[in-house]
Amino acid sequence: MSLLREAERCIANQGTHATLNAFITTRQHSGPWLQRVRDAETRRTQGTSKSAVDGRLIAIKDNICTRDLPTTCASNALDEFASPFNATVVEQLENAGAVVTGKTNLDEFGMGSHSVHSRFGPVKSLRRDRNEESLSAGGSSGGSAVAVATTQCHAALGTDTGGSVRLPAAYTGTVGFKPSYGLISRWGVVAYANSLDTVGIMGRDVSSVNDIFGVLNRPDLRDPTSLSSFTRSRIDANLRTPALASRATSPLKIGVPIEYNISELSPSVLCAWSRSLAYMRRQGHSIHPVSLPTTKLALSAYYVLAPAEASSNLARYDGVRYGNSISDASPGDYIYASTRGVGFGSEVKRRILLGAFSLSADAMENYFIQAQRIRRLVQHDFDTVFRACQPLAFGSAVKNMDSEKNGIDVLICPTAPSPPPRISSFMGNETVTSHPHAYMNDVFTVPASLAGLPAISIPVTVDSFVDSGDVALAGIQIIGQYGDDRLVLKVAEQLDGKRL
Length: 500
Description:
Subunit of the heterotrimeric GatCAB amidotransferase (AdT) complex, composed of A, B and C subunits. It comes from Aspergillus ellipticus CBS 707.79. Belongs to the amidase family. GatA subfamily. It is a single chain. The chain is an alpha/beta fold. The protein has helices at 3-16, 32-46, 88-95, 142-149, 166-172, 206-216, 229-238, 242-245, 267-282, 295-313, 335-343, 346-358, 368-385, 403-406, 446-451, 485-495; strands at residues 23-26, 57-61, 99-104, 124-125, 135-136, 155-160, 175-178, 198-203, 253-257, 286-290, 410-414, 427-428, 431-432, 455-465, 470-480. The strands form three sheets. It has an eleven-stranded mixed sheet, sandwiched between helices. Strand 9 (253-257), helix 9 (267-282) and strand 10 (286-290) form a beta-alpha-beta unit. The longest helix is centred in the middle third of the chain and has 19 residues, at 295-313. The radius of gyration is 22 Å and the shape is globular.
């Protein structure tokens, strides 16, 4: 298909699927950007394309700054904020010839698991059976996921703090990739939790995700968390040892974390997981059970650490430096309190309060410091089971026990414990109801985020589920050692698009 025809189809689908609420802002249907697609088509014909994404329409999550389109973070605190610059990832895509087609809907400031905490209304996912009731698109990058799933764009960028790219991918049948922390620049991304935030990539297949990763995987001096060229070379050298280099031609050792086989795991997800492992075994790879004992504590630690960082980051939206000032506050009122009370939604307020409490003098030792210790244990669990060593560790921590001999190459596990719930199960009369179960959806995605590891969710279709003749679709997650992103993508390609 020509680039121009693909772009026109994406634009047409944006109108067809407008009720799904995937986009907050879109480009006009004609204009200079369409000429950029035509120019890319000419370059493709001449064999001089700038990159694999030259002329492709890419959607951008609306917490990533764009100069030509407003950035809102789906919040009243940023009402049509016009950024004076593009985020580094947007700049890199445009330099590679990609065309930004619009800004996608999300949970306010990225805080949520279902993309319903938005001032623009919830994102809705297409139902795959005769029941027309809308399903959750996952969160917080639900708009990006639905835009990709319904071909409203070629691919999309999201952000992943505790699973916000992978969970929507699992719920919508798309591919969602969270790279190793620090590989992709976060400069120009509105922060939620700095030590966890990662720009992620969503596409309909692993190949398109891989193409975009190749464009964005660059150091950025403007981002203090971006890995330098020297550190990237050190990571590559760590993966070129004889034992690890042989993985290109020899079978892989695939780990199965026993702690992920929880009682809440739905039969359809369990079936997709077991059949995925059986398929990989038929390809010649070996399957090995491993233990990650701190997994059961990871979710609790995450919901202490992330809100704590969020409460600090969002303090700047005070109506003086950033955010919308409440100018009609009566004498004696506090502009700061009024601004934050009107600007933030209920879920953001809830997490700010939770974070502020865990950082208070009386609670810090019992909550925040303990959560940091758990995070270190989670990282240690992963380092113990992987064959590749942690490239950023020093001294005795660099080598785990006989890692290159006994360790595994990647982990394969579910992305979410159950299929997507109905939106009506947590929304009534246009009001979102808070429920503890909403936070449990991230139980399988949070551990990799705490450790900064690369992880990807791919859709796996299971035919004749439990001999009932039904078809089940589940997200299967592949996790690798820090810096081993290419291996994660390689394994994902082997499972991509498979009906098992």
